[in-house]
Amino acid sequence: MQARVERLVTKIEEAGLGGLLVTEAKNIFYLTGFSGTAGTVFVSPKRRIFVTDDRYALIAKQTIQGFDIISTRTALTEIANAIADDGLETLGFEDTVSYQFYQALKAAFPHQDLQAQTNFVEGLRIIKDADEAAIIRRACQISDQAFIDALDFIKPGKTELEVANFLDFRMRELGASGISFDTIAASGFRSAMPHGRASDKVIEAGESLTLDFGCYYQHYASDMTRTVHVGHVTDEEREIYAVTLAANQALIDQARAGMTYIDFDRVPRQLIEDKGYGANFTHGIGHGLGLDVHELPFFTKTADELKPGMVVTDEPGIYLDGLYGVRIEDDLLITETGCEVLTLAPKELIVL
Ligand SMILES: [Mn+2]
């Protein structure tokens, strides 16, 4: 945590800010280890202040190191008082705050130049250290095992919700603190919708079933997708599964530090286009993963490069409107020479 705050101070100085207010809960956790719901952080080259209310004062004092801890319900006023003699001219704040908060900010800091910041702390979170990578690896193992166990549970006649609830409960049994997003269990024609949340639709023999799910383990998320077939599978379904898997694998084979964001998306997309399904791959290839299930990097078409320590998803999909769809998603830890696949559940075509 101390090293993270040091890096933040460097970034604050480089940005020409006098200090930064941090209000996003996950950024506060990243900097302090505090995971309660009421917290405001102020960091400047000379101050580290953590403000919470009485409900969290004790746990804050026990867990947070290197910060002055203030317990109050008027956080901004207290921070303004605490730094009154610092000569602060510019104050950065996160642009995700509410308008109501912004009005309070202007009232508490009437003499400072307030500068909204986008992804300021998130830009530090983009590179995971070894401890974070180990936690995400474990979160992925929990999802892997839950999927393997679900293979014995999925049968024609079960509803999508029953399968989703099985996955959710099993991940908790295996040590997860919760799910990282509403589990997608989309069968048959519903699997053509990339984000079909589990419904009470009954899974029929002859249908595909796309499961997109993940858990939180020690505050970090996993996110994986597998598509299975129930009862039997047609030659066309086999072909589409094979193309999707080849695209997923091509990216695993080529992903490495130094690869541009453009190429990260292009490698699997080109393969799908070459097979004639380009128009059926209707979303981006993936996203970063960490304290949030969707976080930096996002694979916009820029020449930014992957760096060692990034954790990203590789999730090509092919969707045939009204019929069915296939998506396969893995979580990858980018290394100097390639990538480590963190989600290791089977990917060969499974017919249950
Ligand atoms: Mn994903």
UniProtKB/TrEMBL annotation:
It comes from the Bacteria. PROSITE patterns: PROLINE_PEPTIDASE (PS00491). Residues 135-336 form the Peptidase M24 domain. Keywords: Hydrolase, Metal-binding. CDD domains: APP-like. The keyword Repeat does not apply. Residues 4-127 form the Creatinase N-terminal domain. PANTHER family: AMINOPEPTIDASE, AMINOPEPTIDASE YPDF. Belongs to the peptidase M24B family. This is M24 family metallopeptidase. It comes from Streptococcus caprae.
